[in-house]
């Protein structure tokens, strides 16, 4: 089990130079990125960086949201509502009512499959299956994982085994599962 604290994340410029991101975790091999988790602060309207070969699942974790404009039309990105789209697609964003923070899962669809779900029910939960990489990211409130208390912005990663956690009353979290194809 790996616990990643928000306070330990390092800010880096976006690939397109338009803002700041905080990389949470990633898995790479000889073929490049298999998957990556990050958080980004979006302070204004603008274009997304292009990530050919990757699928993105974006979730607004702070703020009112934004409208994404892409080749398939408009997609609303609202608080705690994951939106999936092609990482290579030319996508621009228009903020709804001020700055937001988003959580990004990006993965190589040719080699793995990923999913993100929002959990709001307090109590004990289990996510994933044996052989999957399973993650928990706290959006609001707190959660407990393997004896560790996670606060807002903290992430837990379990590789190859299901992830068990307790969600506090009024907490909101994202669960992420990744598994290899084939």
Automatic annotation (TrEMBL):
Gene3D superfamilies reported for this sequence: Jelly Rolls
Domain of life: Bacteria
Protein name stated in the entry: HutD protein
Pfam families xref list: HutD
């Amino acid at each position: 089990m790996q616990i990643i604290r928000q306070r330990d994340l390092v800010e880096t410029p976006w690939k397109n130079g338009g803002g700041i991101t905080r990389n949470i975790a990633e898995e790479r091999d000889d073929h490049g990125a298999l998957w990556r988790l990050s958080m980004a602060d979006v302070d204004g309207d603008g274009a997304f960086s292009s990530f050919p070969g990757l699928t993105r699942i974006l979730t607004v974790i702070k703020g009112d949201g934004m409208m994404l404009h892409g080749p398939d039309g408009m997609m609303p990105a609202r608080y705690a509502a994951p939106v999936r789209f092609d990482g290579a697609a030319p996508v621009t964003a228009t903020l709804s009512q001020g700055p937001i923070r988003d959580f990004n899962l990006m993965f190589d669809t040719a080699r793995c499959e990923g999913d993100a779900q929002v959990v709001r029910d307090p109590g004990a939960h289990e996510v994933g299956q044996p052989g999957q990489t399973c993650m928990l990211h706290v959006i609001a409130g707190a959660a407990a994982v393997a004896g560790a208390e996670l606060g807002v912005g903290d992430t837990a990663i379990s590789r190859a085994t299901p992830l068990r956690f307790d969600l506090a009353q009024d907490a909101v979290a994202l669960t992420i599962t990744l598994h290899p194809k084939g």
